[in-house]
Amino acid sequence: MKAWQFTDTHEPLVLSEVADPVAGPGEVVLRMTAAGLCHSDVGLLEDEGWLSMLAKRPITIGHENAGVVIEIGEGVEGIALGDRFGVCPTTPAGAPGYSFDGGFAPKMAVAAEALVPIPDGVDDVFGAAATDAGMTSHAAVITNGGVKAGDTVGIIGLGGLGQIGARVAVLAGATVYVAEVNEAVWPLAAEIGAAGVAASIADFPGVVFDVIVDFAGFGSTTAQAVDIIRRDGTVVVVGMGRLEATISTKSLILNQCNLRGSNGGSKADIAGIYEFMKTGDLVPQVTTIGFDEIPEGLERLHRGEVRGRLVATFD
């Protein structure tokens, strides 16, 4: 079969002929139906710092995956041929595209422990997007942010993660305000159900935030969140737009701010996103492309031309 493989930094993906995977003990083989493209894929192509995370080279990348079971390995129970699953990239099995060959190929072998059932009524395109963007957003807002009904929540950044996080907070019963510098996407905030949108999280006078989730992470955005969060409120940092931030320790102390980072999530977070999707109330902004368009799709991500999530589908 054909697979898009990473060979080295600053080199394009190579369309290689590789052997079809076989389900080993505890594994299944998925016929891929959808695979998301991510900015971390762009980072892998551009930054040598990612190389240490790879189990081998060349390797088929693609860590946001959904598919149908077509082969079941020895010892796997409770799974049937034809079942649909998303693949969690944070289990002990490792991450597709890093620890083992990922989803930019028609088939993928994966440990059964990484599988999350996709409910009826949830399209595989959304099933794939939920395994990274959805998981990360749910973990930041619900698991680590503790957002609940009645909270007032700030969401910084309305990109692929922020749009999902903002909608999850709305569906959880919170009043949500969005900070986004790109005014072109402000209408999306209203569609999501946000109570207001502005360029900065500091631009909502009189609003007292219980939780602020920074999906941008540009240093100053985190600093502003710490400055304005209510006493004993929570600031969750997800974005890595900058790898350092200078915050006011005065604000941190006087506000007794619970400042925490959020990295990825778990199978429970993916399942939580699927539950929101199943109702039809969570429909992330997604653009689909074909398998042959994956390299160009990554270029579009690199150029900042994609809104929401970009997902490759398989015929």
Short note summarizing the structure:
This protein has 315 residues and is of the alpha/beta class.
Q: What can you tell me about this protein's structure?
A:
The strands form 3 sheets. Strands 3, 5, 6, 7, 8, 15 and 16 form a 7-stranded mixed β-sheet that branches. The chain contains 8 helices and 16 strands. It has 315 residues and is of the alpha/beta class. Helix 4 links the parallel strand 10 (175-179) and strand 11 (196-198). The protein has 2 domains: 2-130 and 265-313, Quinone Oxidoreductase, Chain A, domain 1, CATH 3.90.180; 146-261, Rossmann fold (3-Layer(aba) Sandwich). The two termini are 14 Å apart. Helix content is 27%, strand content 25%. InterPro entries: ADH-like_C, ADH-like_N, ADH_Zn_CS, ER, GroES-like_sf, NAD(P)-bd_dom_sf. Its cofactor is Zn(2+). It is an enzyme of class 1 (oxidoreductase). Residues 8-312 form the Enoyl reductase (ER) domain. It catalyses: a primary alcohol + NAD(+) = an aldehyde + NADH + H(+); a secondary alcohol + NAD(+) = a ketone + NADH + H(+).
- What would you call the structural class? alpha/beta
Low-pLDDT runs = none
**Number of distinct beta strands:** 16
Radius of gyration equals 20 Å
Number of domains: 2
The CATH homology group name of the largest domain: Medium-chain alcohol dehydrogenases, catalytic domain
CATH topology of the largest domain: Quinone Oxidoreductase, Chain A, domain 1
User: How does CATH name the architecture of the largest domain?
Assistant: Alpha-Beta Complex
Coarse shape:
globular
